[in-house]
Design goal:
Strand content: 5-15%
Distance between the termini: 17 Å
Radius of gyration: 17 Å
Largest sheet: 2 strands, antiparallel
Number of strands: 4
Order of helices and strands: HEEHHEEHHH
Shape: globular
Helix content: 40-55%
Strand order of the largest sheet: 1-2
């Protein structure tokens, strides 16, 4: 929705562990902004830095969160990936130019299928619907995990992130 919301979404990033990450494979681990292994100081302070930067910049850049790895019930990737990712990047550029629309959801602004350049792409209507579905129950579980990370950061966590977490949880409950 705005810079602070983008920092909040970045603070909650998670990914499945791989052979490159320690721990059990395939388990989701919180890796805020994909920086946890590289940040040499408290992540709460790191988040505070990014929130402050948004206040210092006259026109903070837009932040987009993309999940290229959504799968269908059979475990197949819904989005074809690779050079077709450009279609999403074009939508982002069009949003920045004010020429593309979006639908507002509890988690942010999402493209509608008609907002994307889908010509020549072999995606079923069901796959498109699945790509843009917001599973509020799954997001609520994600936010529980994020709440656990926030608790670990203690009093160094910016209050604004707690407010944004509570606000998202409220929107998710409303559906």
């Amino acid at each position: 929705f705005d810079w602070s919301h983008g920092v909040f979404i970045g603070s909650g990033m998670g990914s499945e562990t791989t052979a490159a990450a320690t721990g059990k494979r395939g388990v989701v681990r919180r890796d805020p902004m994909a920086m946890l292994p590289f940040c040499g100081y408290n992540m709460g302070d790191y988040f505070a830095h990014w929130l402050e930067m948004g206040k210092r910049i006259a026109h903070p850049p837009a932040i987009y969160h993309v999940n290229w790895f959504r799968k269908d019930a059979g475990g197949n990737f819904l989005w074809p990936g690779f050079d077709d990712n450009l279609r999403v990047l074009l939508w982002i550029a069009d949003r920045l130019d004010g020429t593309a629309d979006a639908r507002t959801t509890p988690i942010g602004h999402l493209p509608r299928p008609e907002d994307l350049h889908l010509e020549g792409l072999d995606l079923s209507p069901e796959a498109l619907e699945a790509l843009f579905r917001v599973d509020c129950d799954a997001w609520e579980e994600e936010m529980e995990d994020l709440g656990e990370l926030y608790e670990k950061l203690g009093d160094r966590l910016p209050e604004e992130l707690c407010r944004l977490l509570n606000s998202l949880n409220e929107r998710l409950r409303e559906g």
